[in-house]
Amino acid sequence: MASLKSHKLLVAAIDFGTTFSSWAYSFKHDYDKEPTQIIVKEWNSGIGISSKAPTTALIRPDGKTLHAFGYDAEDKYASLAQNNEHKDWYYFRRFKMALFKDMTLSRQTQIEDESGKKMLAMKVISLVILYLKDDLQKELASKITSAFSFEEEIQWVLTTPAIWNDKARSFMREAAIEAGIRNDQLLIALEPEAASVYCRHIPLETKSSDGRTSIVPLCPGTRYIVVDAGGGTVDITIHEVMEDGNLKEIHKATGGAWGGQEVDEAFKQFLINIFGNPVLQKFKLDAIDDYNGLFRDFEVKKRKSSPDGTAHLAFTLPVALLEIFQSETEETLTDVINQTPFAANIKVLKGNKLGLDSSLVRSFYYPSVRSVLEHLQVFYDNYETYGISVAILVGGFSESPILSCAIKDNFSSWKVLVPQDAGLVVLKGAVLYGHDQSTIVTG
Q: Is 376:411 a contact under the CB 8 Å cutoff?
């Protein structure tokens, strides 16, 4: 039987997410000493450093060349739009879920960019993977002075949602191969399984009979459920810690398209209800930089929104949006808000700010949170079958207190853990999985 442990000098993982993406790596000698010593890419967001970048691609008019990715793509497209030079460029955002939704997925499948122009999905995704691969290799080249063969000594790992079918997973593998990654050096890691591998190293706080608190890892026999709540999907899997420290799969991964993107869509629909779709579309076309900034601001606030009655949300309305609104409607914002069903939930504040009360904010989360709770309820109600005692929440959406508190409140007998930097757990777990695929025993 072939060894499931990598003998490559380095493992590099690419987490190609619906809303955010990144890469990470670790050397074998570091893994052997301390498995969690993993290097994660640092992106410049313009207002600070981030460990992930938006899954946004700006492709030149030739349809063959990726001009920019992530925050850089958003900024450069905004600059092109400001000078009215953007119309022939391809600008793709949050396009990964198209693979999940298209039941006839093939190499001929096309996806639309933000303006409706079409390109082959295979081309777009392979260009993004190529960019992430080259970006990682450039960083390695700047740090390594000794002879190092990129072609021979890297084990690549690419993450995919567990609920994707085999066709979608094969599509991602083909895209990675087209991006120059050799098939025999490529692993596809299911996102919740990668997260579970990393969770082996998460300390669990326990209290002994004498009242003392100790920090210990999950002990053998522990059955836990991993809720990987990302931007597009929520993947759920159950594992048991075995005596040798490896993990046994108790239930295959399940889930649905209930990720944080659903909350973003609810917020967008709220804006449409206030300003009207024509105004919002014109705002997007005429002031894409401000449009992106508005949703970036919401993304940050989304992860801090509290489930209690004090969870008010205030955000600044861009001047460009207000000017377009007044020009197109000739109405005041207050008058329009008073005509909506949620007039009592909104306040127009000083400084072009809009204040939303907690009930309205929570309503953005309701569809996705409800779907997650309904799915988890089946496992919670069948303790004799599954024996779950711990729930571990990972993925960017799990950092939202509204989601985590809902799970804690509804499943009180579970010890619910949200690791630090939960949004990086899948990426780091993919690196660990690349070093040792024997960690998880299926079936």
A: yes
pLDDT, mean of residues 253-276: 93
User: Among 226-240, 271-285, 429-443, which stretch is predicted with the lowest mean pLDDT?
Assistant: 429-443
Question: Residue 122: helix, strand or coil by DSSP?
Answer: helix
Separation in Å, CA 409 to CA 122, 123, 178, 202, 383: 42, 44, 46, 22, 17
pLDDT digits (tens, 9 = 90+) for 332-379: 899 999 998 889 999 988 888 899 998 899 999 999 999 999 999 999
Which residues in 30-51 are b (16+ Cβ under 10 Å) and which e?
bbeeebeebbbbebebeeeebe
Question: Cα 44 from chain centroid?
Answer: 18
Contact partners, residue 240, CB within 8 Å, separation at least 6: 221, 222, 223, 224, 247, 248, 250
Domain boundaries, the chain: 10-192+427-441, 206-258+365-419, 261-363
302's enclosing H/E stretch is helix 288-302
CATH number for the 10-192+427-441 domain, one of 3.50.50.60, 3.40.50.720, 3.90.198.10, 3.30.420.40? 3.30.420.40
Q: What percent of the chain has pLDDT over 70?
A: 92
With contact defined as beta carbons under 8 Å apart, do 41 and 23 qualify? yes
- Domain pair 10-192+427-441 / 206-258+365-419, same fold: yes
Q: What is the pLDDT of residues 159-193, one digit of tens each?
A: 998 888 888 899 999 999 999 999 999 999 999 99
Please compute, for residue 345, the number of CA atoms within 13 A of its CA located in the half-sphere on the CB side.
19
Strands 440-441 and 247-256: parallel
Q: Which residues pair with 17 in a beta bridge?
A: none
Question: Cα–chain-centroid distance for residue 276?
Answer: 29
Q: What does the pLDDT look like over 17-76, one tens digit per residue?
A: 999 999 999 999 999 999 999 999 999 877 778 899 999 999 999 999 999 999 999 999
The model scores a pTM over 0.85: yes
Q: What are the residues whose beta carbons fall under 8 Å from the beta carbon of 114, sequence distance 6 or more?
A: 91, 92, 93, 284
CATH superfamily, domain at 206-258+365-419? ATPase, nucleotide binding domain (3.30.420.40)
Round the average pLDDT of the chain to a whole number and report it: 89
Yes or no: say if 279 and 262 are a contact pair by the CB < 8 Å rule. no
* Residue carrying structure tokens 């850089």: 72
> 351: alpha, beta or left, given left = phi > 0 and alpha = psi -120 to 50?
left
Instruction: Please give the structure tokens belonging to residue 151.
Output: 């072609």
